[in-house]
Specification:
Rossmann fold, globular, 7 strands
């Protein structure tokens, strides 16, 4: 099917699918590398949640800023972090984007507007609000996007951040990835209110969407981001997502009902987009080739990272400034 004959929605979906598939394949590789001991520490995978960063980042510029979570690999990759440096960082190598010191939960790349991941739940939210203030003072029309999970909405700093963003009219889109689980507890067991009510309390626009359909999510995100740029008023976007893996990699998930785990296959944004592309006339061979190219890119980056040096002990304090 010639590219020129494809509709704009189909071209958009294909681009979003590529971003999601790349995140999926990278995280699948991370899972394998963690299982064989190549990646140290803990990792928290976002498999099943790829549509959110793909849709949000589609409408962001390099100068817009994002603060990501401990489950933020997809958010970093969508924003444009270099894959070679990303994978080297995951393996603790000196060639990593943070020289092997940050790892999964503290990775950052200011060159693409990625303010950093954070091992503290809700820890990135006030950082993004500060960035939104900088954007406001700069006057270039940029915005800040703090990602957070449903486990963050009961944290005090989240409420403080909403308050100051509203008081000061800061260009900030708060994006909640609500997967229904805060670590090992259901969301309803941790927070008695709702984001919708909080948005009203802090005088913000609020929208909710099931993030299974990445195209619908992209359309909504685009409208909200445009409004935040135009009005310099903060807003909240709550996205219903599904966490396919455990809280951490290796989590046996005994706390999740078996029925819920059995339904995960039907709640996959990557498969959902694939099916829609096939229906739209995109050849299976084209999507297979896209997958092959992504896998080849990952293979090359993994090999490069595996061959890289580990940080030297005498450099352990380098970069410490406080």
């Amino acid at each position: 099917m010639p590219t020129l004959k494809r509709s704009a929605p189909t071209r958009l979906l294909l681009g979003l699918y590529r971003t999601m598939l790349r995140i999926r394949r990278v995280e699948e590789r991370l899972s394998a590398l963690f299982a064989d001991g190549t990646i140290p520490g803990f990792i928290h995978l976002s498999i099943g949640q790829e549509s959110v960063p793909a849709a949000i980042t589609h409408h962001l510029t390099n100068s817009d800023t994002v603060a990501i979570t401990h489950r933020g690999h997809g958010q970093a990759l969508a924003k444009g972090i270099n894959l070679d440096a990303f994978l080297a960082e995951m393996m603790g190598r000196a060639s990593g984007i943070c020289q092997g010191r940050g790892g999964s939960m503290h990775i950052a790349d200011s060159s693409v507007g990625m303010l950093g991941a954070n091992g503290i739940v809700a820890g990135g939210i006030p950082i993004a609000v500060g960035s939104a203030l900088a954007h406001q003072l700069d006057g270039q029309g940029n915005i800040a996007v703090p990602y957070f999970g449903d486990g963050a909405i009961a944290e005090g700093v989240f409420h403080e951040s909403l308050n100051i963003a509203s008081l000061w009219n800061l260009p900030c889109l708060f994006v909640c990835e609500n997967n229904g689980w805060g670590e090992f507890s259901k969301t309803d067991d941790q927070f008695s209110g709702s984001l919708k009510k909080l948005a009203a309390t802090y005088d913000m626009d609020y929208q909710f969407i099931d993030a299974l359909d990445v195209a619908k999510l992209s359309n909504l995100a685009g409208r909200m981001i445009k409004a935040v740029r135009k009005t310099s008023r903060p807003a909240i976007l709550e996205c219903k997502v599904t966490r396919h893996h455990g809280h951490y990699e290796g989590d046996p998930q005994k706390y999740r009902p078996e029925e819920e785990l059995n339904q995960l296959g039907g709640q996959d944004p990557v498969s959902h987009a694939y099916d829609k592309l096939i229906t739209a006339g995109i050849p299976v061979s084209e999507l297979t080739e896209l997958d092959r190219q992504i896998q080849a890119e990952i293979d090359a980056s993994v090999a490069q990272a595996m061959a890289a040096d580990h940080p030297q002990f005498d450099q352990a304090a380098a970069g410490v400034y406080a």
